[in-house]
């Protein structure tokens, strides 16, 4: 379910950006921030992605996509940065 949600969100974001070329979005890894967050996801919490759903883990140097593993509860948080000026 998490993978489907992340892929759907990515498709929606692509459509928004295609129809609104002056919009700029940033993406961030977001965990549940509780006691059962795994070490992989804990290190990725708050990390900014490359805009294509890829996130570089500062602890192990690997690139991850959501979900990072089975039963991952993380999400990609999107944030409007600022409109580009024409």
List the helices and strands and how they pair.
Layout: H1 2-19, E1 25-30, H2 39-44, E2 55-56, E3 63-64, E4 75-80
Antiparallel strand pairs: 1-4, 2-3
Word description of this protein:
By secondary structure, the protein is α+β, with helices and mostly antiparallel strands. It has two helices and four strands, in the order H-E-H-E-E-E. The strands form two sheets. Strands 1-4 form a two-stranded antiparallel ribbon. A two-stranded antiparallel sheet has the order 2-3. The radius of gyration is 14 Å and the shape is globular. The mean pLDDT is 89.
Kindly state the mean pLDDT as a whole number? 89
Distance between the termini: 38 Å
Oligomer description: single chain
Helix count, per DSSP? Answer: 2
CA-based gyration radius: 14 Å
Write down the overall geometry: globular
Give the tally of β-strands.
4
> Biggest sheet, in brief?
2 strands, antiparallel
Helix content: 25-40%
Low-confidence stretches: none
Strand content: 15-25%
Strand order of the biggest β-sheet: 1-4
User: Structural class, judged by helices and strands?
Assistant: alpha+beta
Order of helices and strands: HEHEEE
């Amino acid at each position: 379910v998490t993978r489907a949600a992340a892929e759907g969100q990515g498709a929606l974001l692509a459509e928004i950006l295609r129809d609104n070329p002056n919009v700029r979005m940033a993406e961030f890894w977001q965990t549940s921030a509780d006691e059962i967050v795994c070490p992989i996801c804990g290190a990725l919490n708050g990390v900014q992605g490359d805009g294509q759903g890829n996130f570089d883990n500062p602890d192990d140097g690997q690139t991850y996509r959501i979900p990072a593993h089975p039963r991952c509860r993380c999400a990609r948080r999107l944030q409007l940065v600022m409109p580009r000026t024409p």
